[in-house]
Specification:
InterPro entries: Metallo-depent_PP-like, PAPs_C, PAPs_N, Purple_acid_Pase-like_N. With 600 residues, this protein is an alpha+beta fold. It has 14 helices and 23 strands. The structure holds 2-acetamido-2-deoxy-beta-D-glucopyranose (10 copies).
Length: 600
Amino acid sequence: MKSKNIHTVFHLLMTFLLWSLAAAVDSKVPDINTLPVPREGLKTSPEEDELWCKPEQVHLSCGDTATDMVVMWTTVAPCDTHVVFSDKPWNFSRKVEGQAMEIKGKEDRSQKYIHRVVLKNLLPSTTYFFRPVTSNSFGTKPMYFETLPAKNSTSKVTFLVSNDLNPESDKTFISSIVDEVSSGFVSAFIYNGDLDNKLIPTEGRKDSLFLSNLEQIVAYHPFMTVPARSSAVSASSNMNHYLYRTMFSMPNIPWPMPENKLWYSFDAGLIHVISYSTEVFMSYNASLAKAQQTWLVHDLTEANKRRASVPWIVAFGSDPMYCAYGNPEVDDCARNTSAVRHSLEDMFYVFGVDLVVESAHRCYERSWPKYKGVNTNLELSYNQPRAPVEVVMGLRNVQQQQQRENAESNSSTPEPPVWSAYHLQGIKGGSYGRLTVMNGTHLKWELLSAEEQDPLDAFVIVQETHGNFNLANLPHNVSHQINQTIIAQGGKPGTYDFIRNVTGNDGNFSGEGWSKYSVWLGLGAVAAVLAVVLGMVAIRSCVSRRSRRRRWREGDTRDGAGGGFYSVGSGTDSEDDDNDFEIDVYDKASKQSSKLLTSY
Ligand SMILES: *[C@@H]1O[C@H](CO)[C@@H](O)[C@H](O)[C@H]1NC(C)=O
Ligand SMILES: *[C@@H]1O[C@H](CO)[C@@H](O)[C@H](O)[C@H]1NC(C)=O
Ligand SMILES: *[C@@H]1O[C@H](CO)[C@@H](O)[C@H](O)[C@H]1NC(C)=O
Ligand SMILES: *[C@@H]1O[C@H](CO)[C@@H](O)[C@H](O)[C@H]1NC(C)=O
Ligand SMILES: *[C@@H]1O[C@H](CO)[C@@H](O)[C@H](O)[C@H]1NC(C)=O
Ligand SMILES: *[C@@H]1O[C@H](CO)[C@@H](O)[C@H](O)[C@H]1NC(C)=O
Ligand SMILES: *[C@@H]1O[C@H](CO)[C@@H](O)[C@H](O)[C@H]1NC(C)=O
Ligand SMILES: *[C@@H]1O[C@H](CO)[C@@H](O)[C@H](O)[C@H]1NC(C)=O
Ligand SMILES: *[C@@H]1O[C@H](CO)[C@@H](O)[C@H](O)[C@H]1NC(C)=O
Ligand SMILES: *[C@@H]1O[C@H](CO)[C@@H](O)[C@H](O)[C@H]1NC(C)=O
């Protein structure tokens, strides 16, 4: 009986002990759903730090130069922002502090804080090991990246290029890309697709999984974005692309990225990469288009000055300039009045852009070197192109694709136009691009199937004389046909559409804004650049005809061959001369352009 009592007491004691032990263990593992949300400056226990401060969604991007790298990640709480790094895997001897900010509109206990650290003055083409570190030295496992080759370094550069991507459904795609980047030959991953919608959490989740699902790729390689068209563009909201502008940081753009500067460029070895927005040409706010055009002309002018050491110029945008199988009702590229084409084609031609890669179209398309829809190379090849080559990667978004296919069924383009070199529809499992700068004369583009990693298309541009393209260098009949096309569209041969004709009025040049004067001013800027680069005396006639509205400094206009004639804001301004090549059509045109937008 006594022993039974003892047994009962022992049993109770053990139960109590186990229970309190369990309770103690329990209290050791804090539950993020019940803990009070820490405010800035609050010190928490190491256990809690793990919950609040674990870096998630780590992603990299190139910094302002090839020797800078930007590391970004999210946390739940406003934790410290540091990266420890080194060029050796075992000794993270360097520590850099960064900035963090709260992402507006996110729930408590979600990945609400975005952190950004810039690693500066790294060595080019060098592998670095790093860890994002927050409170109490809590951080991620070690990660690593390789910096880009220095400007004018002759090392081979390879970019993977993806169009719209849904990591949750595109598992095969992700594993192909992971395979590919693991090869160690990839300098950066260029994402030419929508991000705005990808960053919005799907229903029932606090956070989007987009960046987490891509972490294997984007925490180890610069993730370079191309501004896409947001379905959420509206005149009332100043939150356009808010998540995109906050979650990413691109070279030579302040962070968070401002709405009026989503475009950027960077050099990697022998290539100058440009990422531009095509949404601005359809935007309610025409000042954005103007800001980008100004920047593009400046950037391309500068890039051409360095062309001897950085010969290749490749531009990435969303909506294409041309498409062979588009429907004018839904596709800007299929219209004679294409906003994107009228805004960019002349500029890319004049400044000698080698390749333009776009994404937002139904199918994959590749063109011959062409200008105004006319093939510039008689032998139909990529040997010494005399105009830019255009590649359209096509959409992966099935819904959008379906929508466009429905519209397409009414398309009246049975025969592909002459410039269409290759065309692919409905690639099962999707595809991605690989752009390889082999050396100063050879640039290779490949399209690979995501399922097989097989090449679906490939070509090599061989260019021995990089620089501005010029009508004068074309065969007579080609130049003639281009001139005829320009005339048929109401233009004037030898003049260039640097600014999009946003009026939507066919051939109406009587408006104050998009006027013949501006065309001439555009030509002036072009001629100036040509003169710098080629030392040609090409601007005289243009100057004499419109000198009233020019800004050339006197000396330059006289000797014609001098440098430095194009300079914003210098020289003597007449009252009607507020922009060199920019045209103030935008305020007047914004009504029409918003109309244009809604027709999308
Ligand atoms: C780590 O690197 C720093 C700087 O390069 C060096 O001073 C230090 O001795 C290294 N520590 C070890 C343990 O190698
Ligand atoms: C890079 O440019 C510098 C200065 O312009 C020049 O001295 C050097 O030789 C170039 N290097 C290569 C590999 O072209
Ligand atoms: C258009 O964009 C500019 C530059 O971002 C901004 O200053 C202006 O307020 C915007 N206009 C409208 C109508 O949103
Ligand atoms: C574009 O212009 C050409 C000739 O200039 C004409 O044949 C064609 O129908 C036009 N296309 C559209 C979509 O307006
Ligand atoms: C396509 O054509 C059919 C008949 O010609 C017409 O009913 C339909 O509205 C058209 N669809 C589009 C998107 O133009
Ligand atoms: C550039 O690369 C191509 C392809 O690898 C090669 O055939 C060519 O000889 C190279 N040119 C130079 C100048 O190295
Ligand atoms: C120009 O002429 C060549 C042959 O002399 C011909 O092959 C080519 O198609 C012509 N190009 C155009 C655009 O008419
Ligand atoms: C086309 O126009 C340009 C610029 O006016 C001119 O230089 C060229 O000679 C013209 N070509 C032909 C074949 O008329
Ligand atoms: C202006 O737009 C009209 C149609 O909207 C087009 O026909 C014309 O060629 C454009 N002009 C220029 C110079 O872009
Ligand atoms: C051309 O544009 C001006 C100014 O926008 C307008 O007043 C005029 O009616 C237009 N003309 C035609 C033919 O569309």
